[in-house]
Amino acid sequence: MYISSRQLIFNKLTDNDFTLYAQLTMNDDVMKFVTGNALTLEKAEIRFQKVLDTNIASGDTGFFIVRKKDKDDFIGIVKLVQITADQFEVGYMLLPEYWGKGYASEMVKCMISLATKKQIKEIIGIVDPENPASIRVLSKFGFQLYETGKFDGLKAAFYKLEFNKTMPLTNNE
């Protein structure tokens, strides 16, 4: 599946994308706010297989490889995955050289657009409470903090965007 936005191209992650996935998940800077530290090769392979399994079962949603349109450079991965019948989770990882350039916002905006087309009722985002950049991205699109606690043993802040409310989809890049 192919999706595009103003600056980015999104392709559903496939079994040929492990090298790109490993660039992110085996990077301490990227994984600091995801798992606390970089994954080993073995753990990256195990998680990658789970990602592939999710993509097979997900139809139009799932995990996407994200590239820049102008140069086809790989910049990261974004996901929109089903949690319950009415709830999906959005998440993303970017290579450090692309941080602070608006790409995370564009990625999340594209996933929100996909969710509205699929008539999804609710999207959540789970972030490390010490990651203000990701909190700003979610807040920009109207996600509201609804719970704090732990996720996979790490501190977590849980944000929610409900589709029965007015969606702030314009002018939010």
Report on this model:
The chain has a domain of 120 residues: Aminopeptidase. Helices cover 31% and strands 32% of the residues. It has five helices and eight strands. It has an eight-stranded mixed sheet with strand order 1-2-3-4-5-6-8-7, with helices on both faces. A hairpin with a 4-residue loop joins strand 4 and strand 5. Helix 1 crosses helix 3. The longest helix has 18 residues.
**Order of strands across the widest beta sheet?**
1-2-3-4-5-6-8-7
Assigned CATH architecture of the domain at 2-121? 3-Layer(aba) Sandwich
Kindly provide the radius of gyration, computed on alpha-carbon positions and rounded to a whole number of angstroms: 15 Å
List low-pLDDT spans.
166-173
β-strand number: 8
CATH homologous superfamily name of the domain at 2-121?
Gcn5-related N-acetyltransferase (GNAT)
Overall mean pLDDT stands at 92
CATH third-tier fold name of the domain at 2-121? Aminopeptidase
What is the share of helical residues?
Answer: 25-40%
Given helix and strand content, the structural type is: alpha+beta
Question: At the first level of CATH, what is the class of the domain at 2-121?
Answer: Alpha Beta
Report on the biggest sheet.
8 strands, mixed
- Proportion of strand residues: 25-35%
**End-to-end C-alpha gap:** 23 Å
Work out the helix count.
5
Order of helices and strands: EEHHHEEEHEHEE
Principal-axes shape call: globular
Tell me briefly what this model is.
By secondary structure, this protein is α+β, with helices and mostly antiparallel strands.
